[in-house]
# Entry
Amino acid sequence: AESFGRRVDEARSRLNLVGQEIARLVATILAEHQAVTKKLAAAKAFPEVVRDATEQLARLLPKDFLIATPYDRLAHFPRYLKAIALRLDKVRADPARDARWSAELAPLVVNWQRELTRSRKAGGEVDPRLVQFGWLLEELRVQLFAQELRTPVPVSTKRLHKMWENLR
# Structure
């Protein structure tokens, strides 16, 4: 009890700093989301890209995203949102390239969503490897559509196909 009390006292002094850091991150995420939303409205000429980006936004930012997302993943959201914005900018220049990359990504996303849905319906906790695979899909989107933003881990469609086979 004494040790716990000491830890509480140590943490109390940092609580404001942590709160400010989270508030700054959330403000950045919301600003990026607003920028992406504007670009989505302007990209109506590319309905498949708009649909895919809208679905991605819905997965990333559900109503409870702040509570449901671990902080270490939440810290990547500004980059994910910037990647969506860059994709919407780039699709005008080369729609065929976007379609090619979307075709590479689609089977992985479909398999992951199907397995995630099945796992949730079965009840219990979702396999952490499946959760990790979902985050790697977000990194793959950055790699494919906004390479200049870089990914913290090496990721490719080939790697994810191999990982998926091992997951199954």
Remarks:
- The chain has a mean pLDDT of 94.
- The two ends are 45 Å apart (CA to CA).
- DSSP finds nine helices and no strands in the chain.
- Residues 128 and 134 are 10 Å apart (CA to CA).
